[in-house]
Amino acid sequence: MKKMIKNFVIILTVAGCLFYLACKGDNQVYAQTGGNFPILPADYQKMLGKGMDVDWSKTGAGKRNYSESAVRKFKKAGIRHVRIRVKDAVTESLFVTLDEQINDCLKYGLIPVLAYQANEFKNVVSDQSMLEAVEWWRMVAEHYKNYPYQLSFDLLIECSDALNKQPERLNEYFEKAVGAIRLTNPGRIVIISPRVRSDAAYLNDLEIPSRANGYIMAEWHFYASGPSKTNSRKLWTTGTKLEKALIKDKINLALAWQQKTGIPTWVGAWMAGNYNDGNDYTLAEQIEFAHYMITQLEGAGIPYAVNSDTKFYNRETDKWIRSMLPLRHCIFTSYQKAVRMLFENSQNQVSSIKKVSKSSIRIKWTDIKRADGYIITISTSPGFWKDRRQAAVTGTEKVLKGLRTGTTYYVKVKGHMRFNGKKVYSEYSKQKSIRL
Fold first, then answer.
1. Sign (positive/negative) of CA torsion 143, 84, 38, 255?
2. Nearest to 125, CA basis, from 178, 84, 180, 163
3. pTM, whole model, 2 decimals?
4. Which of 63, 163, 293, 377 is surrounded by the most beta carbons within 10 Å?
5. Bridging pattern class, strands 397-400 and 360-365
6. What is the DSSP code string of 202-246?
């Protein structure tokens, strides 16, 4: 009898611990139960981590080229959530597409955030367009009411100019949309966003929906279309004190609002280059900007989604874009790995080869950032297999002696740097030749 009582007490204790963890929002419990417990916004904010905006359901190309393997690769790359942007009306075919994508995300542990474009409401702010947007969410919420709580609803993808001028209509939309969602999803995370390009400065304009139920977050944007070398609002050139302050000031606005309201925030979109305007930032400049951005956001405990998947991933080949791998590593893996890869992919130029004497030449080349030194390779054949010599140099020029008159010499240069105790090399420059 005593043994039975003891076992019963142990069972009750274990059950109580599991219930306690579930109520606290322990991530391991969510994983074990398939997310069947509502997640507190503060816990969800931590779970989101680093994410990416995806066009899997936004464009025709996105839908046609979507594949489950992309989800696996995103997860493996360190991406923890995706913001699935949608603009289509609710149809059976839309749910077929979304179901596949959301189920794949949940299968591989990628948090799905479903975000609605609501173009009709944003462009023509009327009672009818608002009603249609609210009805969109009612139907979507009904469809996903039994889905794990890792799935959240982002009610609006950035205000339009028309809606920016009517903040009371924006708040009215959030009030009605949240009410429609709460009919079937009382404990799901719902995300609202302020006007004027979702600027953190306008978070104070938001009115918290009456049926938020405590399961609500706010989304805000900055540098959603990248930094600029001329626009003072989002200026970034070399990372001056003023330019860094622009980033810190926005983050501080969001932190102050979080402190005042108790509502966690999330950055729904930012990008490292101004790709929409032709992109006049080198990859190295983008990496430095991204490194500062993520350092500040992570230091503030604010998760973010990078805009967007098409800049990093080729949907048609189902592969990462090789040239963007250093930036991807900077954002999702390691800044040091990004620096190493950027160096390994860099290539300098042999700027000049001049004859100094009958048997010597002077070679000059361009510098590579972070290079500790250079290796010069010289040969009497363009394939560098005949009479091959090498010289190690710390500067950016070298006089080579002991050469043969009447012979053509081919030269190329590469840099090297020390990384984690090992020497790594850049790519060779294009070869140049000189005849003595």
1. negative
2. 163
3. 0.84
4. 293
5. antiparallel
6. GGGG----TT-TT-EEEEEESSTT--BSS-GGGB-SS--HHHHHH
